[in-house]
Structures are given as C-alpha cells and as structure tokens.
C-alpha cells in the first residue's frame, strides 16, 4: 500500500500513527515503528522533535532568500534562492518541482513537518498509555513535545501562505488552512506549553536543548515559550495594516513573562553548536562570514547616511558620524584572520560576485558579530549562537507599550539598552512620543537583531519591502502536484502592492 509512492507530508503524519496496523512504508519517517517501541524511545522521539525544529528553523533555506529579498542582506550567487529572488524589478518565486530554487519552499515544509510528525508520534504514544520513570517525567516530556508542536506550527505559519494543521488528535486527510489559522493553532499550543510548565522545577539534560549560560528547565522553558508566543503573533503580520490590528496587549503580556521583562534576570536563547553533529544553525553561520552574503547598503545607509542606500559601483566608506556598531575598517587582518573586538558591521572595501548579475546585489559591507560561529571557520557552527536575543524581547515589550498607550519612559529605557549601550546614539526619551519611539524600535530590530531576526519578518509587517517582493511562500510545487492542486506562487512587479 503506497510502498514506494510519496504522499503528502501532512498525510504521512496521520498514517504514522496507524503504522502498526497498515503495511505502509513511510519514506519521510521510516523509524516510527522502532521509535515507539519502548518508553525510552518515546522520550527520545520527543527530544528529537525539538532538535529537528531547531536545525530546520536556522538553516539556509528559506532564510537567506528571505533576508536577501527583504534588502537586509544581499547576494548574487545562485545558492539557496538568493540570485533570482534578488532581481529588480522583483520576479515571482520559481515554485517548480524541478526548478533550481525549489528547496526554498521544500526544505522548511518537509523539515517542519518532520518535527511536527515526531512530536505528534510521541504525544500519541503518551496518550496510548506510555509512561516514563515517573509521572513527573512523563509530564515533562509531554510538554517538550508540545513545545516542538508549537514551534513547528509557528514556522509553517510564518513562512507559508497556508499549511496543514495537524496534531496527535488529527484523523483523516487534512485540508490546507490559511496562515492566520495556522498561527492561531500555534498560539493554542504555546498557551498549552505555558500552562503546563508554569511552576515546574524539572530540568532537562543539556543534550535536549544545549542553552548557553542557563539551564533548560521548567522555568526557562516557560519563559522561552512566552517569548516565542509574543514573536509568533508580532511577526505573523504580512502588512502594516495587519501589524496595527494585532492584539498588542496580548503580545505585551507574553513578552513581559519572557526572557526579559518582569519574569526574572534576562537571558539570550543561545544554543551551543557542536560543529554540525547535532546542534547547528546554518543561516547565521552564512551571514557571519565572508562566504558571500554581505550586508545590503540600505542597512548601512541607516547607520551612516553618507553611504548611498543603493549600490551602483562606487565603494563608499562610512562617515565619521555613525552608529558605533559599524566600523570604518576591516574586521580582518592582512592574513584574513578575524580581529577580536571588531564592530558588528565592517567596511571591507571590496565586493564579490558578477556585476552582470546585477550591480545592486553587491556591497562592500559585511557582518561579523558572531564570526566565531561562521563559515570562515572549520568546521564552523561551534560554541554559542543566539537564536533569540533578550534585546528582541525588550524591543517587543517597548513596541507593545508604544502601541497600547503604555509607559513610554519604560519603552525608551528598553530601546536605549542597545541604541545607547551598543550604538552610542542619542538617547530616546518618553518626550519623543510613540511614533518616534516606534521608528527607533524598528531601527534596533533591523540593526541589533541582524542575523537573529529575519529581515523579511521584520520588514513585511511595516510595508518596507520593494513592490513585488513575496511576503510569504506558496505550498511547494511537489506537494501541490501530489495533492492534485494547481501550482501557484507569489512575487513579481505587478503583485503585492503596498510595498515600498
């Protein structure tokens, strides 16, 4: 029965639960039968679902294409969808099952459904009566699997215009749901994780989620879930109108209980990479290197206005008055070795790539805040790398305060942690008013969170994209073909009006 035929990824999630009764070869999850054999295997599947979510949520596809098409980073290499989705005027995303850029959509789709399927399998096993050594440990790993469910649904809701919403209770062949419904489902899961972890004192082994500087326990899991709930809502908006319509009081409630705010000492969600063994993040690895993804001069222009916001071939160094996170000199010595203590952004004075592919795709500026993690090193992906900074949570609190008529003095203080503390810019004050403070917040989200907050998520919700830039991806063509549905796509100069 379908022994050698690929069927829809979400349908496979449902079939995996029936695998003991059906002669089905599941090519996307071939180890389901073995994995559910013993309590320890179920525990391992719950843990592996979190790893699968993380590796796929930090890989190069679609995130490099997203950052490039948002004019945050830039590139003209054909890798990872960066070249054709950086054309001007914008062209439609090539949603084809045989196209060179098919991995942009296929990789996150298959990867996140892999994480969701593993989490669902673990929760089905727990629902069927599998117990770990104690009731408390069973509850602990149920919550972990729910965390992976919420995280995978979040990625699907942020990346795609529609997706399947499936969990351990799903029956039958699922139907595609619009992204707002996927986000709603993710938020339901985040609320369940938050409720289940409140007041819990358990601690996970470091291998389950190797956080830097803090333990992964009931308390930190709860705070991370609150921050993820806040960012899920905030970044789900595809337009400024959707951003304005969000429940910012709800976002504030989550963020205040997150990794900064009123819940305790702030901490970054920083994962310790093991050099491409189990824990690694390729997206920041690529952007924190000289491999070929420089910073778009549009970003540099924000920090140093003397640099033109469009690259036309003239290599312009930063001016004397600029954000301190931008250096006027190279971050590397004559031997190509990184100089410790360099600023986040550096002027390297040269460009890469073929001019014929579009001179606007070049830039002499590079990002190196987390250079030790980057592809310049061998093997790379070693040591701590932030996934979400405490500063991001601070900025969400500040934004929510501004949008709900809250304490503007507190909002300004949160903005100044990085605006003044790292950028050495003039302090924001309550007297600047909510509108000006929101401009400062957007600036910090672009600059301070570079390579940890994707540029597309930030810029689409403020209508700060070029006209024709896709604001999300379609369901992958291969999946649509399997389902017998028409292939469609987004992008192109005549689509997505309202962008800048």
Q: What is the secondary structure topology, with strand pairs?
A:
Layout: H1 9-17, H2 32-35, H3 39-57, H4 63-69, H5 103-127, H6 135-159, E1 162-164, E2 176-178, H7 179-197, H8 218-235, H9 240-245, H10 248-256, E3 269-274, H11 282-287, H12 297-303, E4 326-327, E5 345-347, E6 365-367, E7 382-388, H13 390-403, H14 408-419, H15 433-447, H16 455-460, H17 477-483
Helix pairs in contact: 1-5, 3-5, 3-6, 5-6, 6-7, 6-8, 7-8, 8-10, 10-13, 13-14, 13-15, 14-15
Explained architecture:
This protein has 500 residues and is mainly α. Among the domains are: 9-238, Serine Threonine Protein Phosphatase 5, Tetratricopeptide repeat (Alpha Horseshoe); 390-448, no CATH class. The protein has helices spanning 9-17, 32-35, 39-57, 63-69, 103-127, 135-159, 179-197, 218-235, 240-245, 248-256, 282-287, 297-303, 390-403, 408-419, 433-447, 455-460, 477-483, and strands spanning 162-164, 176-178, 269-274, 326-327, 345-347, 365-367, 382-388. The strands form three sheets. The chain has a three-stranded mixed β-sheet with strand order 4-5-6, with helices on one face. A two-stranded antiparallel sheet has the order 1-2. A two-stranded antiparallel ribbon has the order 3-7. Helix 1 (9-17) packs parallel to helix 5 (103-127), helix 6 (135-159) runs parallel beside helix 8 (218-235) and helix 8 (218-235) packs antiparallel against helix 10. It starts with 8 loop residues before the first helix and ends in a 17-residue tail after the last helix. 52% of the residues are buried. The model is unreliable at 1-30 and 496-500 (pLDDT under 50).
């Amino acid at each position: 029965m379908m022994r050698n035929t690929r069927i829809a990824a979400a349908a496979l999630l449902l079939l995996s639960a029936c695998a003991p009764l059906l002669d089905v070869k599941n090519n996307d999850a071939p180890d389901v039968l073995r994995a559910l054999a013993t309590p320890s295997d179920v525990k391992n599947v719950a843990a592996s679902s979190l790893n699968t979510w993380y590796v796929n949520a930090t890989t190069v596809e679609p995130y490099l294409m997203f950052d490039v098409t948002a004019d945050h980073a830039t590139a003209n290499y054909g890798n990872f969808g960066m070249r054709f989705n950086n054309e001007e005027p914008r062209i439609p995303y090539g949603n084809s099952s045989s196209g060179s850029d098919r991995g942009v959509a296929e990789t996150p789709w298959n990867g996140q459904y892999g994480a969701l399927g593993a989490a669902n399998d673990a929760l089905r096993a727990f629902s069927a009566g599998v117990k770990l050594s104690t009731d408390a440990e069973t509850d602990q790993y149920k919550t972990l699997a729910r965390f992976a469910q919420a995280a995978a649904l979040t990625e699907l809701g942020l990346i795609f215009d529609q997706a399947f919403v499936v969990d351990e209770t799903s029956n039958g062949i699922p139907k595609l749901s619009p992204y707002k419904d996927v986000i709603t489902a993710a938020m339901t899961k985040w609320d369940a994780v938050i409720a289940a972890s409140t007041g819990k004192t358990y601690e996970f082994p470091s291998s389950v989620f190797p956080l830097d500087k803090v333990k992964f326990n009931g308390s930190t899991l709860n705070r991370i879930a609150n921050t993820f709930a806040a960012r899920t809502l905030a970044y789900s908006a595809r337009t400024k109108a959707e951003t304005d319509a969000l429940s910012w009081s709800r976002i504030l409630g989550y963020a205040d209980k997150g990794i900064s705010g009123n819940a305790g000492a702030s901490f970054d969600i920083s994962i310790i990479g093991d050099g491409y063994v189990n824990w690694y993040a390729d997206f920041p690895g690529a952007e924190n290197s000289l491999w070929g993804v420089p910073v778009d001069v549009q970003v540099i222009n924000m920090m140093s206005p003397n640099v033109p916001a469009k690259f036309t071939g003239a290599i312009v160094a930063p001016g004397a008055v600029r954000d301190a996170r931008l250096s006027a000199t190279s971050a590397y010595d004559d031997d190509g070795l990184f100089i410790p203590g360099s600023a986040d952004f550096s002027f390297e004075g040269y460009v890469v790539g073929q001019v014929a592919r579009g001179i606007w795709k070049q830039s002499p500026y590079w990002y190196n805040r987390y250079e030790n993690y980057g592809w310049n090193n061998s093997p790379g992906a070693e040591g701590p790398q932030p996934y979400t900074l405490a500063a991001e949570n601070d900025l969400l609190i500040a934004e929510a305060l501004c949008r709900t008529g809250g304490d503007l003095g507190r909002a300004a203080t949160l903005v100044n942690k990085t605006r003044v503390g790292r950028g050495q810019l003039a302090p924001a004050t309550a007297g600047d008013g909510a509108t000006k403070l929101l401009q400062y917040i957007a600036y910090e989200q672009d600059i301070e969170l570079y390579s940890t907050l994707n540029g597309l998520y930030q810029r689409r919700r403020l209508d700060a994209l070029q006209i024709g830039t896709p604001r999300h991806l379609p369901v992958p063509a291969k999946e649509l073909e399997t389902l017998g549905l028409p292939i469609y796509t987004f992008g192109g100069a005549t689509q997505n009006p309202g962008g800048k």
